[in-house]
Amino acid sequence: MGVPPNVTEAIFSDPPTLTQHYQGNGWVLETPNASTLQIRTASGGFYDYGFIHPENCVPNSGTMATKYRYSVNAGEVLQAPLCNEGSYTLVNIWRFGEKLVTQFRCHRATGNHNVCQRLY
Amino acid sequence: MLGGRPGDQPPRRLRPQPPATALVPEEVAALRQELADLRKSVAVTRNAQSAPGDSAAVAHVERRLARLEATRPAPGRPATANPDAADPDDESLVESSASVDGPTVMADGTPRFAELRAADRSVQVRQIAGGSLVVANNDPKLTGQLMVVKARTAEGDEQDVLVTVPPPV
What we know:
The complex is a heterodimer.
Chain A: E1 8-11, E2 19-23, E3 27-33, E4 36-41, E5 47-54, E6 64-71, E7 77-81, E8 88-95, E9 102-110, E10 113-118
Chain B: H1 25-48, H2 54-70, E1 113-118, E2 123-127, E3 133-137, E4 146-153, E5 158-164
Antiparallel strand pairs in B: 1-4, 2-3, 4-5
Helix pairs in contact in B: 1-2
């Protein structure tokens, strides 16, 4: 069994800039600020995107929600939130025809910082 | 203190205010109705107050009511179109995605802060739309450090928040 990759970190200066966590095959996982993640289609194809994220940001809320879509056009985006420090969001991406689903778990690290780790 | 870019003037930022203009009679009537509603709301809320956090909310409504009453038009006199613009020192007018009467908790669960003061003067912190923070740093030695920031809401509630110091830009 392989070792999971290290986390990637996005630390936001002022003004915040769109920061890339991971470049996939025709898509990217990126973050415009510490409380938002997004998957963006970079080139045409057929992609399934999904997030599992906190439904709301009430502290220690036990409810998660989902956001999902398919995408075929470059520039299409799916976004999901992170709440305060400690909250986390799960990310799934699959490109039609590929053998593996790419998965990430992302945490809000501090007020201006989030991290994502690819699971494999 | 709300942060700006290094070298900026004092970083407290006020949202641009619309110009004050005279109200038409219909607007005066609407303002009077709003005053009556607010008075009733304050009285009811004060009587029903139970949680400690309620007092801050009541105080906020009471301040707004006082501003509205101060700008209520006397007979034959025009009033300020935006009563909230009458108090430029009101710290609830800091730059934020939320309106003065908007939520006191941002989308990510963070309170809407009126002031953010970092432990080191080389670091300025600002809250952006959605509630997350952005940080300007002009000391390379601080890069990567976890830093405590004293945060205060417009209602005066204080708490410590954490930021990660980015490299100077």
